[in-house]
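Minutes, structural biology subgroup

Action item carried over from last meeting: produce the structure token record for Histidine kinase/HSP90-like ATPase domain-containing protein (Streptomyces luteosporeus). EB confirmed the sequence was re-checked against the source entry. Recorded below for completeness.
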Amino acid sequence: MLLPFPVKETAERIEPFEYSLLVPHDARAVRVARTTLRAALLAHELGELIGRAELLANEMLTNAIVHTSGTAELSLWWSEWRVLRVTVRDNCPRPPTPRAVRPYGENGRGLRLLQALADRWGHAPSPGGGAKSVWCEISRA
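Output recorded by EB:
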């Protein structure tokens, strides 16, 4: 069957890619990181992942800025298994821990959002200690 328009690349045919962005210790940098994430996913025709990826990256980066004192790094990795891994590395070796949530409080929901919206998530100390990575994975529905 001949189609009258070009067929877009499917998830099975998107080549693996990886992007990294150094994020300064500045709350305004989170917006820049979200914009960069959005641009990368649109460029690779993964627009349907933007909502979850932006929200989860936002939460992980905000935690890195609020709870550490240095730069962070945001990494995006699309694998041959059709999974997007979003990773935030920061300079604090302590693992993330859930906080008590007050009904009308503005804090303490980030890890719960990771649990609810990510297909998988976790954290790991960086080699040599002194830092950690928090990551989540999302895939096309």
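Discussion: The chain is about 30% helix and 25% strand.
Next step: EB to file the record with the rest of the batch.
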